[in-house]
Write a structure and sequence with these properties.
Glutaredoxin; globular; binds glutathione
Length: about 240
């Protein structure tokens, strides 16, 4: 069994999509965004970085008791290896998939995350940050467009790399980016949207993204701000 410690965001959705695609049994514990339920000593035992999502494999194939895994890139590789699915067996294609997966978690995800931060959450008047990260998101969409113009998926077949990139692309309109301007990305995005496992993930009772997470300009209480971007969040890194 996989216990998924979940938040209904792009990073969380990557893992539900993978679990659904791989047909692995899982439980979901939801951590409402902005509430800071994961900013505890106990949660640090699962992820010393106090971020979501995290999985715990209660019965890893190699024994040794329950195994927590954090960082979505590592989680996706772990699940692909456990299920034997969605990471190509061919070594050359496997390397292609791993490159795009690392591209997502090391660049595409963080740049989109910063764009969401400056456009949707930061106090008004952050023009430089907005310009910088929005332009970088557009640059990365051009990179995706280039790749998806020559290949149906990021590698020769649908893989965990596509599962990592796709949820972030779905959030583009929230940062005033129109994916329709990127025809190959749009074609790829629509194809993935029709996959039954993806439909189950995005519409699941426990996993669908709630409407109030989708506000273009979020209004957080001081406590929610502290949990998400302020003292409470930073303080979690010093919990012993
Ligand atoms: N690089 C991490 C990013 C994880 C991350 O930033 N998660 C966000 C949700 S998308 C989170 O935990 N936010 C709450 C917080 O920062 O306290 C990964 O890929 O797992």
């Amino acid at each position: 069994m996989i216990d998924l410690h979940y938040v209904a965001t792009a990073n969380g959705l990557k893992i539900v999509i993978a679990l659904e695609e791989m047909d692995l049994p899982y439980t979901v514990t939801d951590y409402p965004l902005f509430e800071g339920k994961h900013l505890t000593r106990e949660f640090r035992q699962l992820n010393p970085n106090n971020k979501l999502p995290v999985i715990v494999d209660t019965e890893p194939a190699f024994g040794g008791g329950p195994l927590p895994v954090f960082e979505t890139g590592a989680i996706l590789i772990y699940l692909a290896e456990k299920s034997g699915k969605f990471l190509p067996a061919d070594p050359r294609q496997r390397m292609v998939a791993l490159q795009w997966l690392v591209w997502q978690v090391a660049g595409h995800g963080p740049m989109n995350g910063q764009a969401h931060h400056f456009i949707r959450y930061a106090p008004e008047g952050q023009d430089y940050g907005i310009q910088r990260y929005r332009k970088e998101v557009l640059r990365l969409l051009n990179v995706l467009e280039y790749r998806l113009s020559e290949s149906e998926y990021l590698t020769s077949e649908y893989s965990v790399a596509d599962m990592a990139v796709w949820p972030w692309v779905q959030g583009s309109s929230l940062i005033d980016v129109d994916v329709a301007a990127f025809p190959a990305v749009n074609r790829w995005s629509e194809t993935i949207l029709q996959r039954p496992a993806v439909i189950r993930a995005i519409s699941g009772e426990k996993t669908a993204v709630p409407d109030h997470y989708m506000q273009k300009r979020a209004k957080l209480t001081p406590e929610q701000w502290s949990n998400t971007f302020g003292d409470k969040m930073h303080g979690a890194a010093t919990l012993k």
